[in-house]
Amino acid sequence: MKEHFNKLVSVLIVLVVLILLYIGSVILKKNTTSEAPATQTQPQAEQNSAASEPSESTPQVSFSYDYVANYKESGGYTEQNYDGKIIRTNTETNEVTTMIPSVKQAYPKLKEYKNLSLQNLNRSEKTGNLYLTTVLMESDGGRNGIVKYDPKTNKLTELKISDYFRIYSARESANSPFAASILTPAENMDTKDPKKLYLLDLDNDTVKTLTTLPKGQTFNYCYIGGCMFGVMPEIKWLSAEEFEVTVFSTTQTEKDGYGNDMSKRLKKLKFNVNQ
Questions:
Q1: Burial classification of residue 193, based on how many CB atoms lie within 10 Å of its CB (0-12 exposed, 13-18 middle, 19 or more buried)
Q2: CB distance 164 to 180 below 8 Å
Q3: Hey, is 129 helix, strand or coil?
Q4: Is 19 helix (H, G, I), strand (E, B) or coil?
Q5: What pLDDT does 167 receive?
Q6: C-beta atoms surrounding 207 within 10 Å
Q7: Residue 188: per-residue pLDDT
Q8: What 3-state DSSP class applies to 61?
């Protein structure tokens, strides 16, 4: 009898221990779950709002600027016919906006002559500026001066170095804001023997002397034989940053395409705008 009682007690003890172990495991699991950090889910509205916000890396819209002349051969000798406008083109959509409807109104110097107008020279990718020159239409007056159109101010202004760019004594780069010239503002088109070559930096409105020729050499194609305007260099832009210029002799001659005497070509010099 006593032996059966002891067995029953042992079984009860084992059951109690198992029950306590089970209860302990449940409590431990509950505590562990409650202490774990909750995962926060962003509300759908906030997710949609965040998705709709523009990225900081969204590319900027780019524009190009041009001068468009009104001129037509049948337009007659009127101020309107020699006027023009500055336009802006969205390079992505090709949408065109008129920025200055009348350059003669915006730049009064053009009103000195009815047929005084503008022509595109070049533009700057760095500043966005458009550079132009004045020209007396339907004449042999040639091109004179440099006018800047600044998109930031929407104004036309003359550069300080403008007088270095006159008639046929200078040549501009078509693809960068630079030009090369062989005359200073103090010299005129009767200066027969120009020996200095100048680089015009349109963005910075500055001039730099690139070289000076020795006696017996000149940059003037017209030194022997003459030209209508007296001074004309042979300047050729090879790229946006590099150009070459011909050096002529003041004493030696060669024949031109018509069999006439002209100054002999001695050599070509190359220059880079960054040198």
A1: middle
A2: no
A3: coil
A4: helix
A5: 81
A6: 16
A7: 72
A8: coil
In which residue are the tokens 């042999």 written? Answer: 140
Residue type, 7: K
Task: Name the residue type at position 18.
Answer: L
Q: What is residue 20's predicted lDDT score, i.e. its pLDDT?
A: 60
pLDDT value of residue 60: 66
Neighbours of 231 (CB within 10 A): 25
Compute the distance between CA of residue 89 and CA of residue 116 in angstroms, rounded to an integer: 25
Q: Which residue from 38, 88, 53 is spatially nearest to 68, judged by alpha carbons?
A: 88
Burial classification of residue 132, based on how many CB atoms lie within 10 Å of its CB (0-12 exposed, 13-18 middle, 19 or more buried): buried
Provide the pLDDT for residue 41: 42
How much is the pLDDT for 9?
Answer: 52
Q: How far apart are CA 16 and CA 202, in angstroms?
A: 98
Low-confidence ranges of the chain (pLDDT < 70): 1-61, 189-190
Query: Which two structure tokens, joined as six digits, stand for 24?
Result: 């302990």
Q: The tokens 């022997």 sit on which residue?
A: 224
Burial grade of 98 (CB within 10 A; 0-12, 13-18, 19 or more): exposed
Cβ atoms of 161 and 205 within 8 Å: the answer is yes
Place of tokens 């090879």: 238
Q: At residue 2, what are phi and psi to the nearest 5 degrees?
A: -65, -35
pLDDT tens for residues 85-127?
Answer: 999 999 999 999 999 999 999 999 999 999 999 999 999 999 9
How big is the chain by its Cα radius of gyration, in Å? 40
